[in-house]
Design goal:
CATH topology of the largest domain: Serine Threonine Protein Phosphatase 5, Tetratricopeptide repeat
Strand content: under 5%
Number of domains: 2
CATH architecture of the largest domain: Alpha Horseshoe
Length: 167
């Protein structure tokens, strides 16, 4: 829980011991994004997907977030659209990341729609303070993304703000 240096050390060790384990590699790749090294994580995510061509859905979710952190919003939004389009209310975190990517792209109407899906879905799953509202939901999303660099958190918040969410 935010012990970034320790996490980096252990994930490097796991990857070094098991360089062809797709499960370890995708976790390592996403951690690189969280640690502020998305350019290092991207090839790891791509390799994990090649090593396990029948990868589970979350491999692409991690890839989309790495792309977002690389400021490659169009690619991130495209992946997230494909993964959330059929049931956006079932994937509130993912649809919020999509809203942020679309916000940065200036696709305001689509971004706002995704932001509304996020705000509609969260109360159904919320286990925090019953008096919490929209701003607390956004804080929860950002805090739970475990981004080490303040500029990455700010980028996510700005995308969410551009999507009409309270930040």
């Amino acid at each position: 829980m935010r012990d970034f240096d320790r996490a980096a050390r252990h994930l490097e060790l796991a990857r070094d011991m098991n360089p062809n384990d797709a499960q370890i590699l995708i976790g390592w790749a996403w951690a690189q994004g969280c640690l502020g090294n998305p350019e290092r994580g991207l090839p790891g995510a791509e390799l994990a997907m090649r090593l396990n061509p029948r990868y589970p859905r979350y491999y692409e979710l991690f890839l989309s977030r790495i792309l977002f952190l690389l400021r490659r919003y169009e690619e991130a939004a495209a992946i997230l659209k494909r993964l959330t389009a059929g049931s956006p209310l079932d994937h509130p975190r993912d649809v919020a990341w999509r809203a942020a990517a679309l916000g940065h792209l200036g696709r305001t109407e689509e971004a706002r729609r995704c932001g509304e899906y996020f705000l509609e879905a969260i109360p159904r799953r919320w286990r925090g303070d019953p008096a919490a509202g929209r701003a607390e939901y956004v804080d929860w999303l950002v805090d739970g993304s475990y981004l080490r660099r303040t500029e990455d958190e700010a980028c996510l918040r700005e995308g969410l703000r551009l999507a009409g969410l309270p930040v």
